[in-house]
Each structure stands twice: as C-alpha cells, then as structure tokens.
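Database export, one record per block. Field names are fixed; values are copied verbatim from the stored entry.
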Amino acid sequence: MWFFLFTELLFFGGMFLLYSIYRYKFAADFHRAAADENLVLGSVNTAILLTSSLAMALAVTAARRGETRRSIAFQLTTIGLGAIFLVIKGVEWAAKIGRGIYPNGPVLLGLKNGEIIFFGLYFTMTGLHALHVLIGITVIAFMVRYTKRGVIGPQRYSRLENTGLYWHFVDIVWIYLFPLFYLIT
C-alpha cells in the first residue's frame, strides 16, 4: 500500500508542479480565474472530507476493538460524506459548464491563455481527485461487506487499515487542491 501511495504522490506531485510553473508564468490570469471559484462550496467540501477522514479512522479503531457495528457505521458515514463531496463538486462543475467554462468550451476559449490553463488544470486535477474519491467509496463499500461477514475484525483489520490509508491520502490531496484553486488569488 505504501508503494502504491508513493506512486500516487508522484502522480499528483507532477500536477502540482505543473500548476506552480504555470501560476508563476501567468500569475495575473490565474488570479482572475481563481476569482470564479466558490469559496463557500470549497470550504464545505474541505470540512466534509476532513470529517470523513475522522470517520474512517474511527472505523479502523472500532474494527481493532471488535466493535463491528460501530466500524460499519463509521465506514458508511465515510461513504456518505464522500458521496456528498462528489455531489457538491458536481454542482460546482455544472455551474461552470452552464456558463460555457469547460474544456474547449466557447466561453473558455475566449479567455486569456493563463485563464484557459487555470481551468484546464482545475478540471483535470479536481476531476482526477473526484475519481479517486469514487474509487475510495467503492473500496470502502467492499470493506463494509467484509466487516459484516467477519473477514475484517480485531485480528484481521489490515485491509480496512490500508483502505483508510488510501482515503487519508485522497483527503490530503484535497488539502492541497483547496488552497491552490480557492484560496490563493
């Protein structure tokens, strides 16, 4: 799992590096484009993912203690919070798409080069992050099933713990995406 997370770190790290280079090159354009972001929805999504990480940590702790029902409840909470995150991200994307700001969209192509790059990076990076959230939700759903069947319990919780590591990694990626797109103007 640690090797897999390292490869994911390299993957997202490359995108963060690309963002940094273009932000330096097109600082004013990035500033204008970032003003379009919805800080309230981004902040709510940040709180949701941080809470989901807490729920996942509590699910692992409950599994270690043999508290099957609590572990399942916390896993389901994590899934629910992840789903809410995706819905909010979908609302944000829909608002942009509705205004013609989407890859190769007519409104987007009418903007300055730096703004086009900003939104290209926004859709790419948040889209890949959302895909990772969806994968995490799916894997946690399998963990719920394994926990119900007794495959995961006080003596065998490494699958759930590894799933938790993945989920925490996905949350950490968001902790970097949030300021890059919503706070740094």
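Remark 1: The two ends are 35 Å apart (CA to CA).
Remark 2: The first helix runs from residue 2 to 25.
End of record.
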